[in-house]
Specification:
Number of helices: 9
Radius of gyration: 18 Å
Number of strands: 0
Structural class: mainly alpha
Strand content: under 5%
Helix content: 55-70%
């Protein structure tokens, strides 16, 4: 059985079109950062930096993706798979991510949470959860499947996740220290792997969308309220590596 149903696509999925969506989304996000004079190191410190560096760029990029995907007719293969990746114990991955998010949110200093900060953090969660997931584990996955076929799931995972990590390299031009960039790229690669496995396990991109958006916003809100993120977040990375190794050994079944 095919991994996704492309019958509703107005235009046949292709890697070239997927890469064009990827470039278009990044162009909008980084152009917005330049226009707003964003300092990457300060995103999430306040309602203003959350609005300018987090919510607005990703929402603008997401609006572009909505228009483009509607025109291409790719919504079904982008959002849903026809088959799911086993085994059942992979459910530990989304559950662990959800526990980390809950731990971060429950540990917030509520007296420092303003309505404007909560609003822009929520809108940022929608923007980044929708935008980054749709452009990488959505349209790129669809495009890569069209190029490599259903049997090359390893290549689809690797290339889509590498491109997800690469999205974060330009952060050095907006204030991220050069020495920190390799660590961020490594961690985003592992987190991208977790989100890819969650998509394949649940059979839908919607779960990674929700978890990705809440993960980022929960981290930004801890910074804005003067708290440290939950140390439980560091459990996700080795757990993801173990799950990925197990899935590869099973032949992506």
């Amino acid at each position: 059985m095919p991994l996704a149903d492309n019958s509703s696509a107005r235009f046949k999925p292709s890697l070239g079109a997927a890469l064009a969506l990827y470039a278009g989304y990044l162009g909008i996000v980084f152009a917005t950062w330049v226009f707003n004079g964003v300092d990457y190191q300060r995103i999430g410190e306040s309602a203003d930096t959350t609005r300018l560096g987090y919510a607005l760029p990703t929402l603008f990029g997401s609006a572009f993706l909505v228009v483009a995907l509607s025109g291409l007719g790719w919504w079904r293969p982008v959002l849903f798979d026809s088959t799911r990746l086993g085994p059942r114990w992979l459910a530990v991955l989304p559950v662990t991510v959800a526990v980390v998010i809950a731990s971060n949110l429950l540990g917030l200093q509520t007296d420092r949470l303003g309505a404007d900060l909560l609003l822009w953090s929520a809108l940022g969660a929608v923007g980044v959860g929708f935008g980054e997931e749709v452009v990488t584990r959505g349209s790129l996955v669809v495009g890569l499947r069209s190029r490599f076929g259903e049997a090359r799931q390893g290549r689809v995972w690797l290339i889509s996740t590498l491109l997800f990590s690469a999205m974060h390299v330009p952060n050095v031009f907006f204030g991220l220290p050069l020495w920190a960039m390799p660590f961020q790229v490594l961690l985003t690669f592992i987190m991208g792997t977790a989100l890819y496995l969650i998509r394949r396990h649940t059979g839908t991109l919607i779960v990674p969308m929700v978890l990705h958006g809440l993960w980022d916003s929960s981290l930004f809100l801890t910074v804005a309220t003067g708290r440290e993120p939950s140390p439980l977040q560091f459990v996700v990375y080795p757990l993801t590596v173990l799950c990925a190794l197990a899935v590869v050994r099973r032949g992506w079944r």
